[in-house]
Amino acid sequence: MKYEAIVCDLDGTLLNADHRLAEETKEVIKKVKDTGKKIFIATGRHHKDAMEIKKQLGLDSYLISSNGARIHDENNKEIYERNLDLDIVNFILDTKCSSDISRHIYTDEKWYVEDEKEEYRISHQASGFLYEVKDFSKITGEKFIKIFFISTNQEELLKLEKYFEKELGEKVSITLSGPECLELMAKNVTKGEAVKNIMEKLNISLENTMAFGDGLNDYEMLSEVGKGLLMGNCAERLREKLPNNEVIGKNTENGVAKYLKEIFL
């Protein structure tokens, strides 16, 4: 098999419904890695969060986090960063949004929220990286990696997406990592750009790279590589944008592990 590199998203892809790694996934990833394939994580999660999952998988590879706003090397040393400009941050935070939309901020070291919500703890308990409740106006002297909005009210979230596209479309990267999560990063920050950056460093062609994803934040990555695979649970908008890409099993069925096992083992 020609593929030398494998890039995996986490939530909705490599992680199961409980946002954890299934034993089957851990075992298959280890066996595929032992064949000489290079395996990478590319996630919207914070790097401190993703590093714990990387450790659980026993990977010694580059790590793409915050949708490409950060890249860390094999030893978890930061080699790339891209932050939101402060004037953009202020504009985003000054924007009024529906009361059922919660706002989140990633800085270099922290994940800030405005209100306590147990559901966010549950989805990140496997890594131990948890949020801190903070008055956003009190955040000073920190680098803003990304700002994101979470809500089950998808209609309001889509309105917010259209508003930011109209007002900031040329200045930031805007994506939906899931139907309930709208994310804003610095301009040109995408997983696709980060994957190109890493593969160039490692002298691996994109044609010889395989990637798995389920959300719109995976679009650039899945369209750039030689084989971009869609999860069975992927967003409908992603499926519409990549109609010719192969669809595999769902994350709840350990779809990535089963596919890798069939192809490489």
TrEMBL record:
Entry keyword annotation includes Protein biosynthesis: no
Database matches in Pfam families: Hydrolase_3
Keyword set, alphabetical order: Hydrolase, Magnesium, Metal-binding
InterPro entries the UniProt entry points to: Cof, HAD-like_sf, HAD-SF_hydro_IIB, HAD_sf
Cofactor(s) this protein cannot do without: Mg(2+)
Keyword Acetylation in annotation: no
PANTHER family: PTHR47267, PYRIDOXAL PHOSPHATE PHOSPHATASE YIGL
NCBIfam families on file: Cof-subfamily, HAD-SF-IIB
Similarity comment text for this entry: Belongs to the HAD-like hydrolase superfamily. Cof family.
Name assigned to this protein: HAD family phosphatase
The species this protein was found in: Fusobacterium mortiferum
